[in-house]
Every structure is written in C-alpha cells, then in structure tokens.
Design brief:
Layout lengths: L7 H16 L10 H38 L21
C-alpha cells in the first residue's frame, strides 16, 4: 500500500521562498502626478457611489412595494369581459 506524502514541507518551502522574495525587493521610486492621482480618486468615488446606490436600491425595494400596495384601493373592480368575441383579431 502506498503512503501519502505530507504537504507540510512543501508549504514551508513556499512560505520561506515568498518571504525571502518580498524581503529583498527594492523600492520602486515611482512618482504619481496630481492628474493621475485625481483620476484614480475620481474613478474610486464613482465605483463606491455605484455600489452604495445599488445597496440602497436593494434595501428600499421592499419598502417601495409596501407603500405602493397601501396606495392602491383595497378591492379593485375587475374589468368587464367583452359581450361578444369576433373571429377577426383586428377587432378585439
């Protein structure tokens, strides 16, 4: 019968390699100008506003339906059926 090998050593090697790679990186020394920064902030605010609007819409949906049902009369009269139906669909 074959024995299964443990994955613990593989996880340890992977974690050690990842920590060493992250520890030896040099800073990027990059500059983001004011135009790029403002564009990024504007896009971020737009995404946040869209998510907030979607959440508010989902939260207020049941409330809107409840208010619409209250405004409608309690017993709506059914529409009367036509007395005679014709074979010509253009006349219906």
């Amino acid at each position: 019968m074959m024995q299964e090998r443990s994955r613990v050593p593989a996880i340890g090697v992977t974690a050690t390699t990842l920590l060493l790679a992250l520890g030896w990186t040099a800073p990027a020394l990059a500059y983001i100008g004011p135009g790029a920064g403002l564009s990024l902030l504007g896009a971020l605010w737009g995404v946040l506003a869209a998510v907030l609007a979607a959440l508010l819409f989902l939260l207020f949906w049941p409330l809107r339906r409840l208010l619409r049902r209250r405004r409608q009369p309690a017993a709506a009269a059914p529409r009367p059926l036509p007395a005679e139906r014709t074979e010509d669909p253009r006349l219906d």
